[in-house]
Design goal:
alpha/beta; Aspartate Aminotransferase, domain 2; Aspartate Aminotransferase, domain 1; 5-stranded mixed β-sheet; about 40% helix; binds pyridoxal-5'-phosphate
């Protein structure tokens, strides 16, 4: 089935009892037991599972081509739960260029918990190979990466992981299953901040993990979800589902708009570099075209004149909103190094764009006036 159809129908059930075509939001925290002590509908208590979460998890598993999914209260809760399904003493290989929250989680919380972590340039497979130890249990991939839009070869990294009995997890937030399907390329777990493109409207925080098969590791993540308790709330699940219905359409529009914006920036005299996998001069353009169906809506660029010049551009936009996050209908602009803090490795002149669903001519006109002198 095509992803447009899956996005509209997966997890959708006409409601028994009312015939409602659009799902209701079930806020109940607890569910009635039968006289024999059983749970006739399968639900016990909201943390263990709820009707809206079941619908969303079914939908997410179908979109990514997975065996099952687990929905969380945030993207970070999903990442935390996947990594906590490992054991203290296990070794993880993670990318140098990645979502800042993931890097902080590994360094500030999971390293003290006992996880050993090596950070490598994940686009250089020889670095990944060199970092492998007998204790390596998981390789973390994020592609395209934040904020430099580096492209990692998911199939090649998954092969390296499997050759040593490790698993490969891929943060697919910036691509979405419309653009890229890591499980089909060999990854074992896909992680999402559903806060971004899947929710798609900047009004819900959420996360998800989707699993290629239901094995012991998957079981452990589901256990961290229900025992740890960072589960997605019913209304949040409903909002993410509502967003997913239009995801394929939105990703096409985000990609088209971002391509226009990237081409404009690449030709601008004040711009020293544009990082966008859809541009033919991106260092991994061929790989991007191979594993991504669309270039997606995220990019970053560098302005000549250093940090103050790039801050100046962000200060002058009128249509773009100066804010963090991404994947909503409105375009956002962000000076990235200053939000990541003093330990950032992001270039100080780098600006990140989340290109929204406005008309690309209006977005380009806004950047054009902001880039004047
Ligand atoms: C936003 C984001 C996260 C974290 O998600 P939250 O919902 O903010 O916790 C993780 N990975 C990537 C790539 C993100 O963009």
């Amino acid at each position: 089935m095509h992803i447009e159809t899956t996005a509209v129908h997966a997890g959708r059930h006409i409601e028994a009892g009312t015939g409602a075509v659009t799902p209701s939001i079930h806020l109940a925290t607890t569910f009635e037991r039968a006289e024999d002590g059983s749970y006739p509908q399968g639900y016990i208590y909201n943390r263990l599972g709820s009707p809206n979460r079941t619908m969303l998890e079914e939908c997410l598993a179908a979109l990514e081509g997975g065996a099952s999914a687990a929905a969380f209260s945030s993207g970070m809760a999903a990442i935390m739960s996947v990594l906590q399904a490992l054991s203290p003493g296990d070794h993880v290989i993670a990318p140098l260029d990645a979502y800042h929250g993931t890097t902080r989680l590994l360094k500030e919380m999971l390293a003290p918990w006992g996880l050993e972590v090596s950070f490598v340039d994940m686009t250089d497979l020889s670095q990944v190979e060199k970092a492998m130890t007998p204790k390596t249990k998981l390789i973390w991939v994020e592609t395209p990466s934040n904020p430099l839009l580096k492209i990692t070869d998911i199939a090649a990294v998954a092969d390296l992981a499997h050759a040593s009995g490790a698993i490969c997890a891929c943060d697919n937030t910036w691509a979405t299953p419309v653009v890229q399907r890591p499980l089909e390329l060999g990854a074992d777990v896909v992680v999402h901040a559903t806060t971004k493109y899947l929710g798609g409207h900047g009004d819900v925080l959420g996360g998800a993990a989707v699993f290629r098969k239901n094995d012991a590791f998957t079981e452990r993540v589901h256990n961290v979800q229900s025992v740890g308790g960072a589960v997605a709330a019913p209304f949040d699940c409903w909002l993410v589902m509502r967003g997913i219905r239009t995801l394929p359409l939105r990703m096409r529009a985000h990609s088209e708009n971002a391509t226009r914006v990237a081409e404009f920036l690449a030709a601008h005299l004040r711009v020293s570099a544009v990082h966008y996998p859809g541009l033919s001069n991106h260092p991994s353009h061929d790989l991007a075209m191979k594993q991504m169906a669309l270039p997606s809506g995220m990019m970053s660029f560098q302005v000549k004149g250093g940090e103050s010049a790039s801050m100046g551009v962000a200060a002058k936009v009128k249509l773009f909103t100066r804010a963090t996050s991404l994947g909503g209908t409105e375009s956002l602009i962000e000076h990235r190094a200053s939000i990541e803090g003093p330990d950032t490795t992001t270039p100080p002149d780098l600006i990140r764009l989340s290109v929204g669903l406005e008309h690309p001519d209006d977005l380009i006109a806004d950047l054009e006036q902001a880039l004047v002198g």
